[in-house]
Amino acid sequence: MKKIVAFAGFALLAVGAFAQTNLQVFYDLGENRKMVTTTLEMFKSDDWGSTFFFVDYDYFNKDYRDEEVAGVKIHPNTYGARSSYFEIARSLNFWQESSLGALSAHVEFNAGVGFGSRNWLFGVEYFLHNDDFSNTFTFELLYKTFKGSESHLPLQFTFVWGMNNLLGVEGLKFSGFADIWGEDTYLWADRDKCEKSLTFISEPQLWYNVGQFFNCPNLSAGAEVELSYNFAYNEGFMCNPCVGLKWDF
After folding, report:
1. How far apart are CA 83 and CA 58, in angstroms?
2. How far apart are the first and last CA of the chain?
3. Residue 59 is inside which H or E element, if any?
4. Which of 49, 70, 87, 228 could bond to 93 as cystine, CB 3.0-4.6 Å?
5. What 3-state class would DSSP assign to 65?
6. Alpha carbons 181 and 151: distance in angstroms, whole number
């Protein structure tokens, strides 16, 4: 799951750019994962606010090709996408030039293949930044609907940050997000057990613009750590590091 470029996009308004798209390719180093994930992200602003979406694809590796689904073994020559996740969000802000310009209305939809629910979210977001927009922070408070699962606390709190030229190093960027919500989660280990607790996921990323050294400023190399708690049917805390490349179009 990625949602970082959406809020970095506010900074683009300050420098006259109105759209950003990037493709990220990660290799997951987490235990029992060892898989490739691709993420396509797009952000575009306009006079009424902004639109953001991303699409994740996880691909089969050798271990997954040997596993069984519903008692049927996956064919060893299966190489396509194993699962996918999609989010699209629209921020509405007709008052961008007013004293409330940092506050926007927010509507979002997310769903996926291999995920147990699909969700609509409605709420507000608040955007903070320094003078040159090199450091940004966004907070969202959202009401979350559930289709395919249930929640004892149908709220989601989202935090998104971006820090450019970290520690004064040109091309070094620290970015990420954190989501916290309530969901009644059935777990892989015990499908009859329903865990009523908060669910948490965060994906801090560190990118370095390696392309600046050979006239290819679109290319960055970096790493991500997926931190989660009771997420995607997994019980308890998980930490999955990844390494990857990013291309900014």
Report:
1. 5
2. 20
3. strand 49-59
4. 49
5. helix
6. 9
Task: Provide the pairing of β-strand 119-129 with 219-229.
Answer: unpaired
| 232 φ/ψ angles, rounded to the nearest 5 degrees | 55, 45
pLDDT score recorded for residue 78: 66
Provide the residue type at 120 as one letter: W
- φ/ψ of 31, rounded to 5, equals -60, 135
Structural contact between residues 23 and 38, judged by C-beta atoms closer than 8 angstroms: yes
Residue 200: closest CA among 225, 219, 183, 220: 183
Contact 64, 85 (CB under 8 A): no
CA 153 – CA 181 distance, rounded (Å): 7
Contacts of 93-99 spanning 24+ positions with Cβ under 8 A = 93/48, 93/49, 93/50, 94/48, 94/49, 96/47
Q: 10-residue block means of pLDDT along the chain (249 residues)?
A: 51 52 92 86 90 91 58 61 90 89 94 81 94 91 85 88 94 95 70 70 96 95 94 83 96
* Token pair 């970096």: residue: 222
Report the distance separating Cα 178 and Cα 87, nearest Å: 15
Q: Is 232 left (phi over 0), alpha (psi -120 to 50) or beta?
A: left
Q: Which residue has the tokens 């997954």?
A: 64
Which residue's entry shows tokens 């040159």? 132
Strand partners for 184: 150, 196
Helix (H, G, I), strand (E, B) or coil at 67: coil
